[in-house]
Design a protein that fits this description.
single chain; alpha/beta; TIM Barrel; eight-stranded parallel β-sheet; 8 strands; binds pyridoxal-5'-phosphate
Length: 230
């Protein structure tokens, strides 16, 4: 077995165990293999080993890879999306995890309209840490903005995403994940048309098990599958 295949098996096993601890079925959690900076050859190895979802954080890098690999897999955009790159996303991604402002949502909606693109699936990124550097809606701002975003045509809001601060002990971010789930619940209870809160994108190599225990439906795992990035 290749190293990537062995790593993938180990991650899948850990997902199954975390799911079992939380009384969830492993099938309710989708593994997004984060392939930023990873070569096409190594991504192909991962696909051969069974990866079906790939995550990239840059539009340009994803374009180059999708051109070669095509879309027998689902591609996820997990990094910040600049407004001048929005026009490229329609042919590339199955899910945008990182919509972090009303202006960006409006731009995606406008571009989709212009292209006659039916609907694009997205998650709203929430900023839950003290760190100034991370992007995303503050929870209160999201609760104010959600109806306005829901009214934009061509968008399907499927849920929320967060990137917690990196803390040495994964236990320390448990409350961040719990807060994201509570926020999704709060939004779900409003019953807004066009907004399902079915997806929670949270958890990376370092903390995906805690995220699964707290309800993650999408975990974004790079290093634990592909090894450390250069
Ligand atoms: C790079 C990245 C990941 C994967 O991080 P690992 O620690 O390598 O698993 C997940 N989510 C986002 C948004 C990323 O940029």
């Amino acid at each position: 077995m290749s190293e990537i295949a062995a790593n993938l098996r180990a991650v899948q096993e850990r997902i199954a165990q975390a799911a079992a601890r939380a009384g969830r079925t492993p099938g309710s959690i989708r593994l997004v293999a984060v392939s930023k900076t990873v070569s096409v050859a190594r991504i192909q190895e991962a696909i051969a080993a069974g990866v079906r979802d790939l995550g990239e954080n840059r539009v340009q890098e994803a374009r180059e890879k999708v051109e070669i690999l095509g879309r027998p897999v689902r591609w996820h955009l997990i990094g910040h999306l600049q407004r001048n790159k929005v026009r490229y996303i329609f042919q590339l991604f199955d899910l945008i995890h990182s919509v972090d402002s009303i202006e960006l949502a409006q731009e995606i909606s406008r571009e989709a309209e212009k292209r006659g693109h039916p609907e694009i699936d997205l998650l709203l990124q929430v900023h839950l840490s003290e760190e100034e550097t991370k992007s995303g809606f503050e929870p209160e701002a999201l609760l104010r903005a959600i109806e306005e975003i829901a009214r934009l045509p061509h968008l399907r809001v499927q849920g929320l995403m967060t990137i917690p601060p990196y803390l040495p002990e994964p236990e320390e971010v448990r409350l961040c994940f719990r807060r994201l789930k509570q926020l999704a619940e709060e939004i779900r209870q409003r019953g807004i048309p066009g907004v399902s809160m079915d997806e929670l994108s949270m958890g990376m190599s370092h903390d995906f098990e805690v995220a699964i225990e707290e309800g993650a439906t999408l975990v974004r795992v790079g290093t634990a599958i592909f090894g450390a990035r250069a």
